[in-house]
Protein backbone atom coordinates (compact mmCIF):
# COMPACT_ATOMS: atom_id res chain seq x y z
CA UNK A 1 0.00 0.00 0.00
CA UNK A 2 2.91 2.28 -0.70
CA UNK A 3 0.82 4.48 -3.00
CA UNK A 4 -2.04 4.98 -0.56
CA UNK A 5 -3.30 8.51 -0.04
CA UNK A 6 -4.10 9.11 3.62
CA UNK A 7 -5.46 12.41 4.93
CA UNK A 8 -6.52 13.28 8.46
CA UNK A 9 -8.96 16.12 9.13
CA UNK A 10 -8.47 17.09 12.75
CA UNK A 11 -8.14 19.87 15.33
CA UNK A 12 -4.96 20.00 17.41
CA UNK A 13 -6.40 19.83 21.01
CA UNK A 14 -8.88 17.06 20.19
CA UNK A 15 -8.17 13.99 22.29
CA UNK A 16 -10.26 12.05 19.80
CA UNK A 17 -8.15 13.14 16.86
CA UNK A 18 -5.06 12.21 18.87
CA UNK A 19 -6.23 8.59 18.73
CA UNK A 20 -5.85 8.50 14.98
CA UNK A 21 -2.56 10.37 14.99
CA UNK A 22 -1.09 7.91 17.49
CA UNK A 23 -2.43 4.86 15.66
CA UNK A 24 -1.00 6.09 12.36
CA UNK A 25 2.33 6.80 14.02
CA UNK A 26 2.43 3.34 15.59
CA UNK A 27 1.84 1.82 12.15
CA UNK A 28 4.38 4.23 10.60
CA UNK A 29 1.83 5.38 8.03
CA UNK A 30 2.58 8.60 6.21
CA UNK A 31 -0.38 10.95 5.93
CA UNK A 32 -1.35 14.54 5.27
CA UNK A 33 -2.59 16.39 8.33
CA UNK A 34 -5.18 19.15 7.90
CA UNK A 35 -6.01 21.23 10.97
CA UNK A 36 -9.61 22.37 10.69
CA UNK A 37 -11.07 25.77 11.55
CA UNK A 38 -14.22 24.64 13.32
CA UNK A 39 -15.92 27.98 12.76
CA UNK A 40 -15.31 27.87 9.02
CA UNK A 41 -15.33 24.17 8.30
CA UNK A 42 -13.61 23.26 5.09
CA UNK A 43 -15.58 22.04 2.07
CA UNK A 44 -13.59 18.82 2.35
CA UNK A 45 -14.79 18.21 5.92
CA UNK A 46 -18.41 18.92 5.00
CA UNK A 47 -18.09 16.61 2.00
CA UNK A 48 -16.43 13.78 3.91
CA UNK A 49 -18.60 13.94 7.02
CA UNK A 50 -21.93 15.38 5.83
CA UNK A 51 -23.92 13.80 8.68
CA UNK A 52 -22.11 15.06 11.77
CA UNK A 53 -19.76 17.60 10.17
CA UNK A 54 -17.19 16.86 12.89
CA UNK A 55 -13.55 15.96 13.19
CA UNK A 56 -11.68 13.68 13.15
CA UNK A 57 -12.14 12.21 9.70
CA UNK A 58 -9.67 9.75 8.23
CA UNK A 59 -9.64 9.77 4.43
CA UNK A 60 -8.09 6.73 2.76
CA UNK A 61 -7.81 6.86 -1.02
CA UNK A 62 -10.68 9.31 -1.16
CA UNK A 63 -12.98 7.34 1.16
CA UNK A 64 -13.91 8.83 4.56
CA UNK A 65 -13.90 6.99 7.87
CA UNK A 66 -15.68 9.00 10.57
CA UNK A 67 -15.62 8.65 14.36
CA UNK A 68 -12.29 8.28 16.11
CA UNK A 69 -12.46 4.75 17.47
CA UNK A 70 -13.92 3.43 14.21
CA UNK A 71 -10.92 5.05 12.53
CA UNK A 72 -8.50 3.34 14.91
CA UNK A 73 -10.06 -0.05 14.16
CA UNK A 74 -9.92 0.69 10.44
CA UNK A 75 -6.20 1.53 10.71
CA UNK A 76 -5.67 -1.73 12.62
CA UNK A 77 -7.46 -3.79 9.97
CA UNK A 78 -5.88 -2.17 6.91
CA UNK A 79 -2.31 -2.06 8.23
CA UNK A 80 -2.47 -5.15 10.42
CA UNK A 81 1.06 -6.37 9.72
CA UNK A 82 2.69 -3.57 11.71
CA UNK A 83 2.41 -2.91 15.47
CA UNK A 84 -0.87 -4.70 16.26
CA UNK A 85 -3.13 -2.67 18.53
CA UNK A 86 -5.90 -5.20 19.24
CA UNK A 87 -5.13 -8.56 20.85
CA UNK A 88 -5.49 -11.72 18.75
CA UNK A 89 -7.63 -13.52 21.32
CA UNK A 90 -11.38 -12.88 20.73
CA UNK A 91 -12.17 -12.55 24.44
CA UNK A 92 -9.33 -10.10 25.03
CA UNK A 93 -10.46 -8.09 21.99
CA UNK A 94 -13.97 -7.94 23.43
CA UNK A 95 -12.60 -6.74 26.77
CA UNK A 96 -10.52 -4.04 25.08
CA UNK A 97 -13.60 -2.80 23.23
CA UNK A 98 -15.57 -2.83 26.48
CA UNK A 99 -13.07 -0.50 28.17
CA UNK A 100 -12.92 1.87 25.22
CA UNK A 101 -16.71 2.05 25.27
CA UNK A 102 -16.51 2.80 29.01
CA UNK A 103 -14.02 5.60 28.38
CA UNK A 104 -16.19 7.16 25.70
CA UNK A 105 -19.33 7.00 27.83
CA UNK A 106 -17.87 8.11 31.15
CA UNK A 107 -14.68 10.14 30.91
CA UNK A 108 -15.33 13.04 28.56
CA UNK A 109 -18.55 14.32 30.15
CA UNK A 110 -17.23 14.23 33.70
CA UNK A 111 -13.98 15.92 32.63
CA UNK A 112 -15.84 18.66 30.75
CA UNK A 113 -17.77 19.60 33.90
CA UNK A 114 -14.49 20.33 35.69
CA UNK A 115 -13.51 23.17 33.35
CA UNK A 116 -16.90 24.23 31.99
CA UNK A 117 -18.96 24.54 35.18
CA UNK A 118 -18.77 25.88 38.72
CA UNK A 119 -20.03 25.03 42.18
CA UNK A 120 -21.88 21.80 42.84
CA UNK A 121 -21.88 20.69 39.22
CA UNK A 122 -18.12 21.14 38.99
CA UNK A 123 -17.59 19.21 42.23
CA UNK A 124 -19.82 16.42 40.97
CA UNK A 125 -17.87 16.31 37.73
CA UNK A 126 -14.56 16.14 39.60
CA UNK A 127 -15.85 13.32 41.82
CA UNK A 128 -17.09 11.36 38.81
CA UNK A 129 -13.84 11.97 36.93
CA UNK A 130 -11.70 10.62 39.76
CA UNK A 131 -14.02 7.63 40.18
CA UNK A 132 -13.69 6.81 36.48
CA UNK A 133 -9.89 6.98 36.71
CA UNK A 134 -9.94 4.67 39.74
CA UNK A 135 -12.05 2.16 37.83
CA UNK A 136 -9.54 2.35 34.98
CA UNK A 137 -6.70 1.86 37.45
CA UNK A 138 -8.42 -1.34 38.53
CA UNK A 139 -8.62 -2.52 34.92
CA UNK A 140 -4.94 -1.67 34.42
CA UNK A 141 -3.86 -3.54 37.54
CA UNK A 142 -0.13 -4.10 37.71
CA UNK A 143 0.30 -4.32 33.94
CA UNK A 144 2.46 -1.71 32.17
CA UNK A 145 -0.29 -1.13 29.59
CA UNK A 146 -3.97 -2.01 29.43
CA UNK A 147 -3.29 -4.83 27.00
CA UNK A 148 -0.42 -6.21 29.06
CA UNK A 149 3.20 -5.74 28.07
CA UNK A 150 2.34 -4.08 24.75
CA UNK A 151 0.93 -0.63 24.07
CA UNK A 152 -2.41 -1.13 22.37
CA UNK A 153 -6.02 -0.25 21.62
CA UNK A 154 -7.19 0.96 25.04
CA UNK A 155 -3.98 2.94 25.57
CA UNK A 156 -4.45 4.66 22.20
CA UNK A 157 -8.05 5.52 23.05
CA UNK A 158 -7.25 6.94 26.49
CA UNK A 159 -3.87 8.66 26.48
CA UNK A 160 -5.02 11.77 24.57
CA UNK A 161 -7.02 12.87 27.61
CA UNK A 162 -3.75 13.20 29.51
CA UNK A 163 -2.86 16.36 27.60
CA UNK A 164 -5.89 18.02 29.26
CA UNK A 165 -5.07 16.89 32.81
CA UNK A 166 -3.22 20.07 33.80
CA UNK A 167 -6.33 22.07 32.90
CA UNK A 168 -8.62 19.70 34.82
CA UNK A 169 -6.37 19.97 37.87
CA UNK A 170 -6.13 23.74 37.60
CA UNK A 171 -9.89 24.29 37.55
CA UNK A 172 -10.77 21.38 39.83
CA UNK A 173 -8.03 22.14 42.38
CA UNK A 174 -6.84 18.57 42.78
CA UNK A 175 -3.86 16.36 41.93
CA UNK A 176 -4.46 13.39 39.66
CA UNK A 177 -1.20 11.83 40.79
CA UNK A 178 -2.25 12.05 44.44
CA UNK A 179 -5.66 10.54 43.68
CA UNK A 180 -4.65 8.00 41.03
CA UNK A 181 -0.89 7.34 41.11
CA UNK A 182 -1.07 4.15 39.01
CA UNK A 183 -2.93 5.98 36.28
CA UNK A 184 -0.35 8.76 36.11
CA UNK A 185 2.48 6.23 36.10
CA UNK A 186 0.79 4.54 33.13
CA UNK A 187 0.45 7.89 31.34
CA UNK A 188 4.13 8.64 31.86
CA UNK A 189 5.04 5.25 30.38
CA UNK A 190 2.92 6.05 27.35
CA UNK A 191 4.64 9.41 27.00
CA UNK A 192 7.95 7.60 26.56
CA UNK A 193 6.73 6.35 23.19
CA UNK A 194 7.51 8.56 20.19
CA UNK A 195 4.01 8.07 18.79
CA UNK A 196 2.52 9.61 21.94
CA UNK A 197 5.16 12.19 22.81
CA UNK A 198 5.10 13.67 19.31
CA UNK A 199 1.30 13.72 19.18
CA UNK A 200 0.11 15.11 22.51
CA UNK A 201 0.27 18.91 22.72
CA UNK A 202 1.92 20.66 25.63
CA UNK A 203 -0.41 20.66 28.64
CA UNK A 204 0.16 24.37 29.28
CA UNK A 205 -0.82 25.15 25.70
CA UNK A 206 -4.02 23.18 26.20
CA UNK A 207 -4.68 25.09 29.44
CA UNK A 208 -4.31 28.40 27.59
CA UNK A 209 -6.83 27.21 25.04
CA UNK A 210 -9.27 26.07 27.73
CA UNK A 211 -8.99 29.39 29.59
CA UNK A 212 -10.29 31.10 26.48
CA UNK A 213 -12.94 28.48 25.90
CA UNK A 214 -14.12 28.60 29.53
CA UNK A 215 -14.41 32.38 29.53
CA UNK A 216 -16.46 32.27 26.35
CA UNK A 217 -18.62 29.48 27.79
CA UNK A 218 -19.31 31.29 31.06
CA UNK A 219 -19.90 34.67 29.46
CA UNK A 220 -22.34 33.47 26.87
CA UNK A 221 -24.22 31.16 29.21
CA UNK A 222 -24.67 33.99 31.71
CA UNK A 223 -25.88 36.32 29.00
CA UNK A 224 -28.20 33.71 27.55
CA UNK A 225 -26.17 33.42 24.37
CA UNK A 226 -25.33 30.20 22.56
CA UNK A 227 -22.90 31.47 19.94
CA UNK A 228 -20.90 28.78 18.24
CA UNK A 229 -17.60 28.37 20.04
CA UNK A 230 -15.82 27.84 16.76
CA UNK A 231 -15.46 31.63 16.53
CA UNK A 232 -13.00 31.57 19.39
CA UNK A 233 -10.98 28.85 17.75
CA UNK A 234 -10.52 30.96 14.63
CA UNK A 235 -8.91 33.75 16.64
CA UNK A 236 -6.78 31.36 18.64
CA UNK A 237 -5.44 29.61 15.57
CA UNK A 238 -4.48 32.94 14.00
CA UNK A 239 -2.28 33.83 16.97
CA UNK A 240 -1.09 30.56 18.43
CA UNK A 241 2.10 30.40 16.36
CA UNK A 242 2.76 34.12 16.20
CA UNK A 243 4.85 34.23 19.36
CA UNK A 244 2.78 37.04 20.82
CA UNK A 245 2.24 37.24 24.57
CA UNK A 246 -0.82 35.44 25.85
CA UNK A 247 -2.15 38.71 27.33
CA UNK A 248 -2.67 40.00 23.81
CA UNK A 249 -4.50 36.83 22.91
CA UNK A 250 -6.73 37.12 25.97
CA UNK A 251 -7.45 40.78 25.23
CA UNK A 252 -8.51 39.91 21.68
CA UNK A 253 -10.76 37.12 22.90
CA UNK A 254 -12.38 39.22 25.65
CA UNK A 255 -13.11 42.04 23.22
CA UNK A 256 -14.52 39.63 20.66
CA UNK A 257 -16.83 37.82 23.04
CA UNK A 258 -18.04 41.04 24.68
CA UNK A 259 -19.40 42.07 21.30
CA UNK A 260 -20.66 38.63 20.24
CA UNK A 261 -22.42 37.75 23.48
CA UNK A 262 -24.11 41.14 23.70
CA UNK A 263 -25.33 40.62 20.17
CA UNK A 264 -26.84 37.27 21.13
CA UNK A 265 -29.04 38.64 23.91
From TrEMBL:
It catalyses: RX + glutathione = an S-substituted glutathione + a halide anion + H(+). GO terms for cellular component: cytoplasm. Coiled coil: none annotated. The keyword Transferase applies. It is an enzyme of class 2 (transferase). PROSITE patterns: GST_CTER (PS50405), GST_NTER (PS50404). GO terms for biological process: glutathione metabolic process. Its EC number is 2.5.1.18. One of its GO terms (molecular function) is glutathione transferase activity. Keywords: Transferase. The keyword Hydrolase does not apply. Residues 4-83 form the GST N-terminal domain. It comes from the Eukaryota. Pfam families: GST_C_2, GST_N. InterPro entries: Glutathione-S-Trfase_C-like, Glutathione-S-Trfase_C_sf, Glutathione_S-Trfase, Glutathione_S-Trfase_N, GST_C_Tau, Omega/Tau-like, Thioredoxin-like_sf. Residues 89-209 form the GST C-terminal domain. This is glutathione transferase.
Amino acid sequence: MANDEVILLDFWPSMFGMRLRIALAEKEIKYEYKDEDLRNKSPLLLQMNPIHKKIPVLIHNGKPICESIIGVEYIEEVWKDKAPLLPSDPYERAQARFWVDYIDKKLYDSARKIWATKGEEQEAGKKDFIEVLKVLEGALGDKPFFGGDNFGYVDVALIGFYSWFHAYETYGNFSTEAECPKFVAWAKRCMQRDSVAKTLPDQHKVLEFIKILREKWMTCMLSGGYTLWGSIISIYRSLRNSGRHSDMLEHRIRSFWTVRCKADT
